[in-house]
Amino acid sequence: MPAIQSREIRLKSRPEGTPAAENFELASAESPSPGPGMVQVQNLWMSVDPYMRGRMYDRPSYVPPFQLGEALQGHAIGKVIESGDPDFQPGDIVSHMLGWREYVTGPKALFTKIDAAGIPLQAFLGVMGMPGMTAYCGFLEIGAPKPGETVFVSGAAGAVGSLVCQIAKIKGCKVVASCGSDEKAARLKSVGVDHVVNYKTAPDLLAAVRAAAPQGIDIYFDNVGGEHLEVALELARPGGRFAECGMISQYNATEPTPGPRNLVYIVGKSLKVQGFIVSNYASMQGQFLSEMGGWIKAGKIRWEETVMEGIAKAPEAFIGLFSGANAGKMLVKLA
Amino acid sequence: MPAIQSREIRLKSRPEGTPAAENFELASAESPSPGPGMVQVQNLWMSVDPYMRGRMYDRPSYVPPFQLGEALQGHAIGKVIESGDPDFQPGDIVSHMLGWREYVTGPKALFTKIDAAGIPLQAFLGVMGMPGMTAYCGFLEIGAPKPGETVFVSGAAGAVGSLVCQIAKIKGCKVVASCGSDEKAARLKSVGVDHVVNYKTAPDLLAAVRAAAPQGIDIYFDNVGGEHLEVALELARPGGRFAECGMISQYNATEPTPGPRNLVYIVGKSLKVQGFIVSNYASMQGQFLSEMGGWIKAGKIRWEETVMEGIAKAPEAFIGLFSGANAGKMLVKLA
């Protein structure tokens, strides 16, 4: 078969502050016919996630930085269209890390076959994928929730946060959540969250969270950092656990931003503030897929998606993460 | 027997910022002859410790605030002079929490007999007491050191820090320490610390610690907070553990001080930042006394004391903690 022309999104320049359209460019590249041991995949869905912002800085991190002039990378779900290896057949559905492009040809080790079993494919980029596993492992392993405890979740309307809220309810906790619009707040209430604070309209975030959790909080699941973290430190009960999943309020800072003024509570209240990335918990993947799949089938977990269509929309989808344009998982549908 | 006049130090006013002599007053009270179930003790040694600063604020904490006009409290070692209970005999040596006074009469439950077994009595306020157990439990339980790892200890010349350095060496770690004078630095080198940074004279603390630990740090034992914590976050290796024992740089702040500007590393490097107080590890006391006692007898642990004489000197001893007037454990000898 001839090579296929594949459109892709490249990093044109490193963002200063909040990413903008000019930092990205749409280009075309060849996806060659697969040789022996290779697979050619048409991407159906791709994911944009806040952590990708970190890879746009040219600095050492837990994942290497994106290179200028090259296609970005990220989770995607695709369909095998041609295979040079007997382990893959045309039509197989695969999960992989080479999103931000329409077609990809690569060695078979890069692709993992998935059995969707009635679950929509794009859920494997969300509730059954990396965000789901991030919520599940971070909350259960670091939070170690006990029934009756109070959990505070920031960025609660996002792909990870909304799942943390629901897992916390399944575990018998009281859940206080923050989000950035009344519409998101209403959705969080509809999935069982006890109290929701709109941080954009609350005149005093600390007072609002304190009113919702007058006895204090036992677990803080942090997606936001900054003022939210300061509020959580103030309201934490002794022995509190902080699952530090993200600090999106800091990702676009052009100058170093001072941290909370009350870190000394970490000592006095014996707090555990534990950062994590999902790959720390790779060994839990089987348990996660099994338990989350069960909750989904039992109707205990609901999720939302914000979908943009076509590879050209991927930068807009990504940039939208930082203004809260998404409810739940932000996705780009490619085919 | 008649009551004994006992001099004591009372909290006269709550310090604003760094404590000053005017915040304390020397007064006299009666230590009554003990009734049934009571014991009367002459204090021989009392301890002053940085954590006491927190109890001088009128705010909720893990220990209740000191009351104005009343004698302060803290660890002390004393000798029973009269007993109303058969479990205690005159001459028994006891440990208790009613320091800052020359004599004390109280119910027997407040006093714990100690068997010094050849160890100087005042060591039970230091290496064999609360500071020793703080170093031992915090470093081993939170730090979980492995041979060959690099440990950074701030406030390393203090009662806790100097023991953490030596325990880390016993465990086969490389130790980088910070302290506030060249004399203290020389002493730390003499007990085996690999690299010592004088934070008061180093033109760039980050550069100095980085030069001493070019591969980064695996464990940070924090007594200081503030800039030291920011440096540790910058140099931490992925999976690093921070034992948050104290933040003495923050204790006298009259206005909230912003925290480190690089807390986002907690997420990206999967750091565990765990605050603690020694009472969390009460169940480890037997293990601590046994292992630390063994190290002392084997000559593996050395310690220093800074001793002031007489109850009237207690405020000066306490205030001196915040200017680094102590090398090792700061003590007041009362008799």
* Separation, N- and C-terminal Cα atoms of chain A: 20 Å
Structural class of chain A: alpha/beta
The overall number of domains of chain A is 2
What is the chains' assembly state?
homodimer
Mean pLDDT of chain A: 95
Classified by CATH, the class of the largest domain in chain A is Alpha Beta
Shape of chain A: globular
GO molecular function (chains A, B): oxidoreductase activity, acting on the CH-CH group of donors, NAD or NADP as acceptor
Pfam families (chains A, B): ADH_N_2, ADH_zinc_N
Organism (chains A, B): Candidatus Phycosocius bacilliformis
Protein name (chains A, B): Putative NADP-dependent oxidoreductase YfmJ
Topology:
Two copies of one chain form a homodimer.
Chain A: E1 4-11, E2 24-31, E3 38-47, H1 52-55, E4 76-83, E5 93-96, E6 103-107, E7 112-113, H2 130-143, E8 150-153, H3 159-170, E9 174-179, H4 182-190, E10 195-198, H5 205-212, E11 217-222, H6 227-235, E12 236-244, H7 265-268, E13 272-275, H8 285-297, E14 305-309, H9 314-320, E15 329-333
Parallel strand pairs in A: 8-9, 8-11, 9-10, 11-12, 12-13, 14-15
Antiparallel strand pairs in A: 1-2, 3-4, 3-6, 3-15, 4-5, 5-7
Helix pairs in contact in A: 2-3, 2-8, 5-6
Please supply descriptive tags for the structure shown above:
seven-stranded mixed sheet; homodimer; Rossmann fold; alpha/beta; Quinone Oxidoreductase, Chain A, domain 1; 2 domains; 335 residues
